[in-house]
## 1
Amino acid sequence: MENIALIESFSEFKDDKFIDRVTLMSILEDVFRNALKKKFGSDDNFDIIINPDKGDLEIWRNRIVVGDGEVEDGNQEISLTEAQKIEPDFEVGEDVSEEVKLIDLGRRSILALRQNLISKIHEHDNTNIYKQFKELEGEIYTAEVHHIRHRAIIMLDDEGNEIILPKDRQIPSDFFRKGENVRGVIESVELKGNKPSIIMSRTSPLFLEKLFESEIPEVFDGLITVKKVVRIPGEKAKVAVDSYDDRIDPVGACVGMKGSRIHGIVRELGNENIDVINYTNNLQLFITRALSPAKVTSIKINEETSRAEVMLRPEEVSKAIGRGGHNIRLAGQLTGYEIDVFREGVEEDVELTEFSDEIDSWIIEEFSKIGLDTAKSILEQDISDLVKRTDLEEETVSEVIRILKSEFED
């Protein structure tokens, strides 16, 4: 039977893609009905019988017998003479069922049928992949590096699905080789045309949160809750954790003895420095904890402006700000408050903004970014350190220090 080759070609896809029987029959019937519409103008009067397991396919066209010369629609009607060639006993008004062979559709139609069949199968497969990965959004996934491009890593999972890890979703220290397994969180899944685009991220705060779930049993079991995660990927992160069971120390459980539990997570993130903090509804206490390892003397909070003025001993200021201003920036993101640092016991200090007639505002802004907003806070620093922590040239920093020193000398 000439239908068998076409059915067998479909069966190959069926075995590879695990298309269920009902879907298989639905796709086949849809493809053949489209072909019949193109050939005969309508498929309403056709019966299609499919047995994909055996490779059987039958197409039957049903027409009404009319008198010779009275045929108006050759697809719906058949003349008495033609009907009696099929079965001599047919009479006018009776229904005639006649099998249609694939060869009757023509060679071009058969080629188009196969192409349409392949297209429908790919479309079905892509839809299933989209649905599968859409449910995995926000979950950790592992795939193997297949191709390394300038702007992205192309990976394949065990099923051959393509996962994309863009450059801006990679941790700065990430370095991958072909064949290496990579973990990340499925960030987004979209259909572009008929093809699913699956984007993985290793820089998302959610990736760190999910690593806590996978590596720390108490988080996985729900005994410890990860309240919020903020990150500067590859540099530093702060994680606020809480437990509804007073017997559990959430920070201790997450870190483990000598950092044993969190070590694997740190290594996965390219030695990212992770501060685990006890969450609390007490805002002053939460800000104090968020600024760890610095020890805060006092805090003044303005809830209307979401700003907090933090007083510290001079030797604690650099700890609060952190390298590159990372610590104070993350503390602000974690708590939702803009944090201003002040030195305890500094009475004769001057706000940097007071020098706006001599120092450009953009330069003042550069110092503010790293938590230095008074004259003495800058004068306490080494020039080389200030150059490293800001985007300012050494000449600019030296000129600022000269201006500030002249204020106190006067």
## 2
Amino acid sequence: MTTAIQLDRGPGAMPGAAAIELRRVSRDYGTKHATVTALDDVSLALPTGSWTAVMGPSGSGKSTLLHCAAGLETVTSGQVSLGGADITSASDAALTALRRREVGFVFQSFNLVGSLTAEQNVALPLKLAGIRVSKKDVRDVLASVGLADRGGHRPRELSGGQQQRVAIARAMATRPSVLFADEPTGALDSKSARTVLGLLRRLVDAEGQTIMMVTHDPAAAACADAVVFLSDGRVVDSSGRLSSREVADRLARLES
């Protein structure tokens, strides 16, 4: 049975519409004689215009789930749909085109190009996708994350929180259907983390963005519309919006 997340929907959420759907997905690593199962028969549907946090103990399959949902990894069995399109058996070229057009990524390590300015980093995915780059559009995206006056700065000239906001602006530049975030606040201090989480919340509520976020931080998960808990590669619990204490309590039970 597919786990359809029941959540407190933001204004952008579309009832009944799944931005991401996994049906009986498994992902194995290794050989026939020494196999590790990272995902084990996972079925999950994430509504459009919602923010879902994925949590679980170390090694539970969180990042593998995100990578499979985003088409970064091929599943061993099962089916993955992204924006209504079945990407399970898509070619590398098709997946690359889809990611450039429909998907945005934000990682803990920012992954900015150190030799480029903030504006140039934001424009990079547009250029790679062969999209004509408008300086006004790039500056508007930076302004939307509160960095209108930092466009000419290189990453080394920005704080960690500012670098992550540039990374979010870069991810949003192509107006993706889904934003995948892997520990987006993991390298930030608490103040910067709150700023970044507030920005993600605004993207969902004001612009109808769909976000799938892997995190180990209960405070970050509490900002999402729903939380999915993994253990040993399986979905073992899910809920609508929870407080940080409720998230921490559920996670502690999985880790005990």
